[in-house]
Write a structure and sequence with these properties.
heterodimer, A: 376 residues, mainly alpha, ABC transporter involved in vitamin B12 uptake, BtuC, two-stranded antiparallel ribbon, 15 helices, B: 265 residues, alpha/beta, four-stranded antiparallel beta sheet, 12 strands, globular
Chain lengths: 376, 265
């Protein structure tokens, strides 16, 4: 049995319990709600980091290339970072499992944040991170690239061709959506409707492309389901850096995201330039989505459900919901990817299906308990 | 030279895109510390005028001055420190609590990056006690009764510390007791050196509480003055086309009883 893992898990459970106790502790007097939410934030940050870190080590230890103990994985990670790769274990950990785990965390964070932003500015709980048609645009471009084997004459050989095509496709879709939404009057509902039709357009073109893609169909379909397979370091940075920059931006505007929940007029009278803010946030969230989709395909559910789960537990304040979505999105995607690559030997399951399988029971449970918060 | 009024409108016009002139060449000056009632039939331009003052609507022509400063070209952020508004209805869910909502009233004044400062928290705490919503702090906004929700919205507008507060039909969903309660809260706030505009259909209620009435019809001002002087049965007839009896009770309070709808001549 892996002693280090047991100790780590025990430590994490202790951290989570202690932070839960800290939130509830009252010192015999009434703590104000304002004090309570500060404690909640601290608890979220600390437990989020602890839980994700241990899961990350587990992800480094497990895999088809051979399972090692968590302590071995940890030492392989540290020594490969310090002295470069020397052993087989270090090679597995450093070149395959680390970038993959990091990208999984980043994509989970990105999709959760993007979903959270869209839900707030559109004030519709059914919205997910793919609402502006970006994913369909990216999907179409990627499928086109995979099934024709070229993008603008460049051979598909380079691993960046498909992601680059997808980002371009996503941005084209976003531009069309923004243009239509703007012409329609620029309200958030206009953007959603524009996004929906643009999404349909690109989905249709994608379907047609698939119909003509012949023996490359399998590759294209597998890409569409979403996978973290074959993620390497150079791709990892291209996902991680933009996602972290955009998430940071979203955090900076957490108060404004609260404000738009009260409706356009109330946000405006409080001094917020609502149209500009919504447009900026929409672009920010769409860029995150396009990048995530470009590198790992379309992974559903996280962007829809993670923000809701956080809201149902913590209430509507984005200064709690955003950090919690970051913690939960990263963690959930990491587990989903681990299950996707470990569940059956010699093959991988589509991550999107796993995220749904994990998320649905939790979501349904919370919905039954706290669904009333969405009334009215 | 006369004292600078809190609010001055100079030739305010608002024409909608469809050509409808909602506000026609309105000019007046209003001093500080007054509860001002806007009275007039549906569609007479009360709400439009208020929305032009805080620039929810663009102004077709004319100027709005607050404390002598022309605000027609200032940003929303600058406006928010001077004018707050209480909407007639606020629909929101998404798990915002009463505390979250009132705290958002402080938004124009917040300089901290993440949480509000202790000073902001103290102001909000104080306001919630004053308007009797402190015991609701953790409740979700849409689970409140209409009266409670109205008090929350007033508390939110109050912590914004404006010079001018615009209140649109605050009592339309409330029973008698809560109507009086809301008006008394408004009256209390006026004493704090701000002026409040309140648009409302219950003229007796307005006459009882307002210092000044602005009577509007078809986008124009019919009369401005203290309610007991300007509200007469002739005026009601002229503005609403309704036959009403206007009188005073034994305490000298004005009351209006609409009697019969009469089409004009």
């Amino acid at each position: 049995m892996d002693i280090v893992l047991l100790l780590l898990v025990a430590a994490v459970i202790a951290v989570v319990l202690l932070s839960a106790l800290y939130v509830r502790r009252s010192d015999g007097r009434d703590i104000s709600l304002t004090a309570k939410r500060k404690r909640r934030l601290l608890a979220i940050v600390i437990s989020g980091i602890a839980v994700t870190f241990v899961m990350f080590l587990v992800a480094l230890a497990l895999g088809s290339a051979g399972t090692m103990s968590v302590s071995d994985a940890l030492s392989a990670m540290i020594s490969s970072l310090q002295n470069g790769v020397r052993t087989v274990d270090e090679r597995t950990v450093y070149y395959y499992r680390m970038p993959r785990a990091i990208v999984a965390i980043a994509v989970g964070i990105g999709l959760a944040i993007a979903g959270c932003i869209y839900q707030a500015i559109i004030r519709n709980p059914l919205v997910d991170s793919y609402i502006t048609g970006v994913s369909s645009g990216a999907g179409f471009a990627a499928v086109l690239a995979i099934s024709t084997g070229t993008v603008f004459g460049f051979a598909i050989g380079s691993s960046f061709v498909v992601p680059i095509a997808a980002v371009i496709g996503g941005m084209v879709a976003l531009t069309i959506t923004m243009f239509i939404g703007e012409k329609a009057g620029g309200s958030s509902t206009n953007y959603v409707l524009a996004g929906v039709v643009v999404g349909f357009l690109f989905s249709a073109m994608q379907t047609l492309t698939l119909a003509f893609s012949g023996d490359r169909l399998r590759n294209a379909v597998f890409w569409l389901y979403g996978t973290f397979q074959n993620v390497n370091w150079s791709e990892a940075w291209l996902v991680v850096i933009p996602v972290f920059v955009m998430s940071f931006l979203a955090l900076l505007w957490a108060k404004e995201l609260n404000l738009v929940l009260l409706g356009e007029d109330q946000a405006k009278q409080a001094g917020l330039n609502v149209k500009r803010f919504n447009r900026g946030m929409m672009i920010c969230a769409s860029i995150i989505t396009a990048i995530c989709v470009a590198f790992v395909g379309i992974i559903g559910f996280v962007g829809l459900v993670v923000p809701h789960i956080c809201r149902m537990i913590l209430g509507g304040d984005h200064r709690l919901v955003l950090p919690a979505s970051i913690a939960m999105g990263g963690f959930m995607m990491l587990i989903a990817d681990l299950i996707a690559r470990m569940a059956i030997q010699q093959s991988e399951l589509p991550v999107g299906a796993i995220t749904a399988l994990i998320g649905v029971p939790l979501f349904a449970f919370l919905l039954m308990k706290k669904g009333r918060m969405y009334d009215g | 030279m006369a004292e600078v009024p809190l609010l001055e409108l100079i030739g305010l016009n608002k024409t909608y895109e469809n050509g409808f002139r909602a506000v026609k060449d309105v000019s007046y000056r209003i001093g500080s510390g007054l509860l001002v009632g806007l009275i007039g039939p549906n569609g007479c331009g009360k709400t439009t005028m208020m929305k032009c003052i805080n620039r929810m609507h663009s102004i077709t022509s004319g100027d709005v001055l607050i404390d002598g400063e022309n605000i027609t070209r200032s940003t929303h952020a600058e406006m928010a420190k001077k004018i707050s508004n209480v909407p007639a209805e606020l629909k929101t869910s998404f798990g915002l609590t009463v505390l979250d909502t009132v705290m958002m009233g402080r938004y124009p004044h917040i300089s901290t990056l993440w949480w509000e400062s202790q000073e902001d928290e103290a102001i909000v705490d104080d306001a919630m006690k004053k308007f009797g919503v402190d015991h609701l702090a953790g409740r979700l906004l849409h689970t409140l009764s209409s009266g409670e929700r109205q008090r929350v919205l007033i508390a939110k507008a109050y912590v914004q510390e404006p010079r001018l507060m615009l209140v649109d039909e605050p009592t339309s969903h409330l029973d008698m007791k809560y109507k009086l309660e809301v008006m008394e809260y408004l009256q209390y706030m006026v004493k704090k050196d701000m002026t409040i505009f309140v648009a409302e259909h219950d003229i007796s209620l307005m006459a009882r509480y307002c210092d000044l009435c602005i009577i509007m019809k078809k986008g124009e001002i019919v009369k401005i003055g203290p309610p007991k002087e300007v509200i007469t049965s002739e005026l009601i007839e002229e503005v609403y086309g309704v036959n009403a009896s206007v009188g005073f009770d034994q305490d000298g309070e004005l009351y209006i009883i609409p009697k019969r709808f009469r089409s004009k001549h």
